[in-house]
Amino acid sequence: MRTNQHGASRVSHDVQRALSRIISELKDPRIGLMTSVTRCEVTKDLKECKCYISVLGDEEATMQGLVSAKGFIRKQLASSLNLRNTPEIDFVPDHSIAYGVDMSRRIDEVISQDREKDGMSS
């Protein structure tokens, strides 16, 4: 039996785009202005969705705000997408952007230390 990987990734992308728009329009003061939906993973049966959230600011308050607005967000998602089922949304903090920034900073430090060593040995 063939699976439709292209269809699943398309649905995940559509859900991600819709959730990004919905979250940016929320008026909850706990949700930071710099909140991004980095990735969504929707199950094949469209019952569940893992939504990875990156936050610049107070992550804990933003996640609490999103969890409390979960029902409203799901209702908005159902009205904006024509899906057989509207998935239950599970918000997961995504630290990959912060990790990437930290690794870039560390690489820059190593490069500058190497340059200092090369300058002293010459």
Work out the radius of gyration: 20 Å
The separation of the N and C termini measures 66 Å
**Major beta-sheet overview:** 3 strands, mixed
* Quaternary organisation: single chain
Q: What class would the helix/strand composition place it in?
A: alpha+beta
Task: Give the strand order, joined by hyphens, for the main sheet.
Answer: 1-2-3
Round the mean pLDDT to the nearest integer and report it: 88
Low-confidence stretches: none
Total strands: the figure is 3
Q: Specify the helix fraction band.
A: 55-70%
Order of helices and strands: HEEHHEH
Tell me the β content: 15-25%
Shape: elongated
Number of helical segments with 4 or more residues: 4
Written account of the structure:
The protein is α+β, with helices and mostly antiparallel strands. It is 56% helix and 18% strand. Strand 1 (35-42) and strand 2 (48-55) form a beta hairpin. Helix 1 (5-25) crosses helix 3 (70-80). The chain is elongated.
Quick gist of this model?
This protein has four helices and three strands, in the order αββααβα. It is of the alpha+beta class and about 120 residues long.
Keywords:
56% helix, 3 strands, alpha+beta, 122 residues
List the helices and strands and how they pair.
Blueprint: H1 5-25, E1 35-42, E2 48-55, H2 59-68, H3 70-80, E3 88-93, H4 96-121
Parallel strand pairs: 2-3
Antiparallel strand pairs: 1-2
